[in-house]
Design goal:
- With 296 residues, the protein is of the alpha+beta class.
- It contains twelve helices and ten strands.
- Strands 1, 2, 3, 4, 5, 6, 7 and 9 form an eight-stranded antiparallel β-sheet that branches. It has a two-stranded antiparallel ribbon with strand order 8-10.
- Strand 3 and strand 4 form a beta hairpin.
- Helix 2 packs antiparallel against helix 5 and helix 9 packs across helix 12.
- The longest helix is centred in the middle third of the chain and has 19 residues.
- It is globular, with a radius of gyration of 20 Å.
């Protein structure tokens, strides 16, 4: 995906004035979160590293990023939740770029976010507990409402979000800090062909103009994963997104993410997430209610 293809859909937007009640653990959502902090401070833990959220800054949490929040005093911020409308043949912009977590917020940024929130009161969260709003039913309702809104409002909201994202993109790096252009080219092929069952190493090494052994060795050096591991992880992430936004059955889901054998797909999915696809969807409908699936 290129930035020209990036189509953010606005799920939620509002202003939150909190006081020691923004404490949630192990939150992981299929949408991205943008924060613009106005007053006070809070803490977010990402990958075991704690970050302070302070006034005058914008913060970005990509989709499917597990994090925990905490605050012990007054904390006022704007929030925007965005979902990518990703074509089947494309990948997420977050697949291709590593975005910084924090960037400075200009007065114009704050004014535009305030305008977005003020003009769209229907987008505000009624409750701030992720278990109350971060589920399949709300996601589907929000996506439907977003696509039913008038075109001028959608364009205005998208323009504001794109401006905010541009601040992060200006300091972003290619995902996994892939410096080698040949491997970046092969990753573009992977992201565009995740749904194809005939995606093979031969195609990827050809795109990189390398021999098989050279390609596998360089790919692992650049990404920390073998090509097969990388492809599998991206396919499972895409399957998770499809489960949360549709009622697709297991066989069609497997085919949609490039698996010919649905039984093998279920095995790989469970190994990665701890759930079968069906249980994963149930867990999304009832977050925090189901333990990991221990069935063999």
């Amino acid at each position: 995906m290129t930035i020209d293809d990036f189509t953010p859909l606005i799920l939620n937007a509002g202003k939150a004035s909190l006081n020691s009640n923004w404490n949630y653990s192990n939150v992981k959502s299929p949408f991205a979160r943008l924060f613009c902090v106005i007053e006070g401070s809070a803490t977010i833990s990402l990958g075991g590293v704690c970050h302070n959220l302070t006034a005058g800054h914008l913060y970005l949490i990509p989709p499917f990023t597990q994090h925990s929040t905490s605050c012990d005093g007054k904390f006022v911020h704007y929030y925007i939740h965005t979902y990518e409308d990703i074509p089947a043949e494309s990948g997420s912009i977050f697949d291709e770029w590593d975005f910084p977590f924090e960037v400075p917020a200009t007065e114009t940024d704050v004014a535009l976010v305030a305008q977005l929130v003020q003009n769209n009161p229907e987008l505000r969260l009624k409750e701030f507990d992720p278990e109350k709003y971060d589920n399949h039913q709300n996601l589907m309702n929000n996506l439907y409402q977003e696509k039913e809104r008038d075109i001028s409002t959608r364009i205005e909201c998208k323009a504001i979000v794109m401006l905010l994202i541009s601040h992060f993109l200006g300091k972003a790096r290619h995902h996994n800090d892939v410096k080698d252009k040949r491997i970046r080219q092969s990753i573009k092929v992977i992201n565009s062909r995740l749904s194809k069952t005939d995606l093979r190493i031969d195609e990827l090494k050809a795109a990189a103009c390398l021999s098989t052994n050279q390609f596998i060795r360089l790919f692992k050096k650049e990404t920390g994963q073998t090509p097969l591991q990388y492809i599998t992880n991206k396919r499972i992430e895409k399957a998770q997104a499809l489960l949360l936004k549709s009622e697709i059955n297991t066989k069609n889901l497997a085919n949609a993410v490039g698996f010919e054998d649905s039984a093998y797909f279920c095995k790989v999915f469970k190994k990665s997430t701890g759930f079968t696809p069906q249980k994963y969807r149930q867990q999304a409908l009832n977050p925090g209610k189901l333990p990991p699936d221990n069935e063999k």
